[in-house]
Amino acid sequence: MKFKKVLSFVVVAAMALGIQSVAQSLSPSTTWHWNKGTIVVDTPARPAGQKSALGLTVEKLPVVRVAFVGLGMRGPGAVERFTYIPGVEIVALCDYVEARAEACQKYLRKAGLPPAQIFSGEKGYEEVCKLPNVDLVYVATDWDHHFPVAKCALENGKNTAIEVPSAMNLEQCWELIDLSEKTRKHCMILENCCYDWYEMNTLNMAQHGVFGEVLRAEGAYIHNLDDYWDDYWKNPDGSDPDQLGWRMKYNMENRGDVYATHGLGPVAQALDIHRGDRFTTLVAMDTKSAHGKEYVEKKTGRPCNNFRNGDNTTTLMRTENGKVVEIQHNVMNPQPYNRLYKLSGTRGYATKYPEEHYAIDANQLKATGHKPKFDNLTSHGFMPKAEQDALKAQYEHPILKKYGGLAKEVGGHGGMDFIMDSRLVYCLQNGLPLDMDVYDLAEWCCLAELGTLSMDNNCASVAFPDFTRGEWNVVKGFRHAFANADDEAEAERVAKDFTAKLKEKAAADNVWEKYDKAKAKAAEKAQKAAEKAAKKAAKQ
């Protein structure tokens, strides 16, 4: 039996539970059928005239003109980081609330860069996406607005980078894939955890065979958010009458691993997902909702009988090549922060939490070119610190060598945010494929809907759709792209020269003095208009 619209079944269940809104993590266009006890999610055919975006490149952008949309929690930090990257022009700042967009001008002022255009309101992003002088739209809104902003940007021919999770269901995944393929523009998931120090160095080791063949991996997002729930934006459009904040509201209304990418992204790269391997099947299980339900009841003062997401969700996945990945999600319970990140190979083991360790025996290290000082080194225990430090030094990732020092000064989750942004700009300036493409975006974000399908059907196995539409084995192995030394040096020269001249012109033209005068004049005009309106109202 084939189910043309899964959503209809969700609506019935939601009505029975008294849920007022339909879960966004289940999309109405998803079709699936049972095959020997497994839910098989269908892969839609590629529309005529489209071709794969694997290895997609665009014309070199010596100067990357960027617009930021969403300037609440994550956006301001991104604006500040981009002021440190040569060859970038920040041309637009956009947020639902004008004051938040305006507040980010301080980063441009501090850097000596000219002010950006300000856009605001519910549809302000549509004006931004139509600007002719924008190459990249950087989306850092709440989850509900990631997709509509990204869709608008791609439809207007802009390269797009989207905070995580970049798509909330399969329908959004497929639409972003089709748009990227059709427009030949990048659609990148902003997964910063792929750029953390341990993950990058460990990836480099895995790619050089230090762990043998990696057979199993773990990842997670375990982060108690009790101190932050009330800080998440509350949409003034009335969609959140209880003022829960968008993130708690989303967890209440949606089941599944709704924030899988921090744990999944780094291990997917280590396993060459859609570059020689692919996810084929998953099974998901969750606990009951205890903490989330309790929070909502305390916040609203009434019973909560419809909290969809369990406190802890565990997803097990198997790949075409017989690898297994385990991903966990828990933002409710009191636990130390943990992304797990474990690689288990035929010759070695890596684990990041609660402490960074490797377990590799002496013979394997010698085979990979490392000369351990301890002859009795075995994989039955973790490597001594001195040996571990030597191993990390030997396999320090070239991206860390290039950006690591400045990244620690600029910051952003210890610097990994800055490395992510710098690599994005580097690839655009050099006309290279991005580190993370639209297929990564889909494969790392689809756990929400696939896991929901599993759990809503008694934890049944669910088959992954093939987001590459049969091309997952065309590219052999995940690798970061680099320009040759001469091209890279020339791109850096042009970028630094542009930024220096941009700052010189901003200073010579007294742009900020003029900006402040214009703002003061506008404020005075608005004040007079308000006073006039008040007097008119008083007379009536």
From TrEMBL:
Which of UniProt's keywords are assigned here?
A: Glycosidase, Hydrolase, NAD, Signal
Pfam families, per database record:
GFO_IDH_MocA, Glyco_hydro_109_C
What is a GO molecular function of this protein?
nucleotide binding
Required cofactor(s): NAD(+)
Gfo/Idh/MocA-like oxidoreductase N-terminal domain boundaries: 64-188
Q: What is this protein called?
A: Gfo/Idh/MocA family oxidoreductase
Q: From which residue to which does the signal peptide run?
A: 1-23
Q: Which domain of life is it from?
A: Bacteria
Domain (Glycosyl hydrolase 109 C-terminal): give its ranges.
Answer: 200-357
What is the protein's species of origin?
A: Pseudoprevotella muciniphila
Q: Does the keyword Zinc-finger apply?
A: no
Q: Which PANTHER family does the UniProt record give?
A: BCDNA.GH03377, GLYCOSYL HYDROLASE FAMILY 109 PROTEIN
Q: Which InterPro entries match?
A: Gfo/Idh/MocA-like_OxRdtase_N, Gfo/Idh/MocA_oxidrdct_glycsds, Glyco_hydro_109_C, NAD(P)-bd_dom_sf
Instruction: Name the family the entry cites.
Output: Belongs to the Gfo/Idh/MocA family. Glycosyl hydrolase 109 subfamily.
Q: Which residues form a coiled coil?
A: none
